Amino acid sequence: MSSKASSSRGGESIVADCGRNTSTCGYCKSPTSSSISHGLWTERLTVHDYQALLDRGWRRSGCYLYKPEMAKTCCPSYTIRLRANDFVPSKEQQRVRRRLERFLDGELDLKPRERAEDQDVEVSEPVRKLLGSGKREQNNEVEPVMKDLSEQIDNAVQRCIQSGEFPSNIQIPKSSVKKVLSAKRKKLAEGSEELLYTSNIAFPIVAAIKQTQTSHKGEGSNSAETVSEKLLSEMNKVGEFPGLAVKVCKGHINFFSATQVTSSERDQGESLPSATTTTKSCSTNLQVRKKKLEIHLKRSSFDPEEYELYKRYQLRVHNDEPESISKTSYKRFLVDTPLIEVLPSSDGDDDDENVPPCGFGSYHQQYRVDGRLIAVGVIDILPKCLSSKYLFWDPDFASLSLGNYSALQEIDWVKQNQAHCSALEYYYLGYYIHSCNKMRYKAAYRPSELLCPLRYQWVPFEVAKPLLDKKRYSVLSDFTKASLSPAPQASETLVKSTREREDMEMNNSDEDSDSDSGVNGNDIANILISLNGARLRYKDLLRIINMAVRKQLEPMFISYRKVVGAELSERMVYELQ
Description:
Largest sheet: 10 strands, mixed
Mean pLDDT: 81
Number of strands: 21
Distance between the termini: 18 Å
Strand content: 15-25%
Structural class: alpha+beta
Number of helices: 16
Strand order of the largest sheet: 10-11-12-13-14-15-16-5-17-18
Shape: elongated
Helix content: 25-40%
CATH topology of the domain at 136-257: Gyrase A, domain 2
């Protein structure tokens, strides 16, 4: 399935029922097929229908939708979400932010042993240069930076000679860039910026021009001020100065520490209006490298650079076998999407109040430091939430806790975009498995809620936790927030009968213990069906099929209605093969 989406604001969802699926479990490592779920395949799914499916415990992997059979599967997976505006970061989450900011400011040296998390991994020289050094090695790094700036100035001088701005027969010494001592900063600085380096190359150029006596321009054209302006203009044509702002003052070319900048821009190609570029630097210390963090939101599509990062992540973090990783499996898992794209209209439609500037659909959020791709978050943006699907990152940056940092950024994104879409207020973290220690971090984003697997009501995590401490599967909505004791006695009976029904129905593939357990033939009458390209309800189909076909179809439709619910069964199109 291609990830190319329709630009339609509506459309219809078309699904094929894959039925029950059993497999070994990657969480508890059970040797038997103890992981049990129900599956759907779809190549067209509206964002509203997927939002409704999320709120019934479904998730997607590419174009495959799956819902754990909670009472039967070995490791029940509870959908977990957080209302973004209620989020209160913990001290540890605040430390994650500060640590990354220190890294960007050049104050934090990520050592190879830290980045590899005690793995015996070689770190390439380009990565070492990007990661840089902290304060302890600052003095050793000043010389290379000044040498690089000198080379850029020399190149600008040569271009001025080639263009005729300077005479071709002058003898000019190599430029010299010097570190500015604190005593001289106020004298040379124009404002309050922190002055780091300076070059007076304009003065020997002026002297050399005068010696040749070949100047063909006016008297003022050979002043140090004019020469330095020409050099700066040439330097700006060919590139940037990461972490530095460059100005001329009284004939000197001065390099200042850049200040923090946040701007919104549209990245060329498939980037979106909400793409952001963030440049961070430290203004209180003389740091050699001021690293720039950029975050770009892009439509889901295959990107070779992202794929290479994904391979490194899977090999070094998850210890996957190289032969198990392919472009096909990567695209099927993280690129292909059935979600129908919804963009704000250009005519100022009132509906745009409920659509963020980037629209709804599937996205890849890229994190870059000084242009290097260090992480990619795979997300879905839906009418009520940002749903986090997967994150892969550069193993050399492991100690920056990029998983936690990206979650904080995504929560911030939801907060910011509520101004455009008031209904978009939740952050979905995927599934939470209480028995899996690796998933415990999700509950640290507070105050979070878990979805009750029986009634599909949201229950505060602090209410659910003691229940899950006792048993893996629990009907969470049987308990109130005010008390951990059971709600009315009828609920206890319901829980008991549910357990009895589970025992009896464990081997019956057409049964499921959820709130629609009373589905019968009459309840499926309005299921919407696609047959040979035509749309019709099941009650209309009954007029043209015989009893044998009816007996074959009816259990399938009953099972389907149970897992998707009455509303979606009548809205989504069930494709008969």
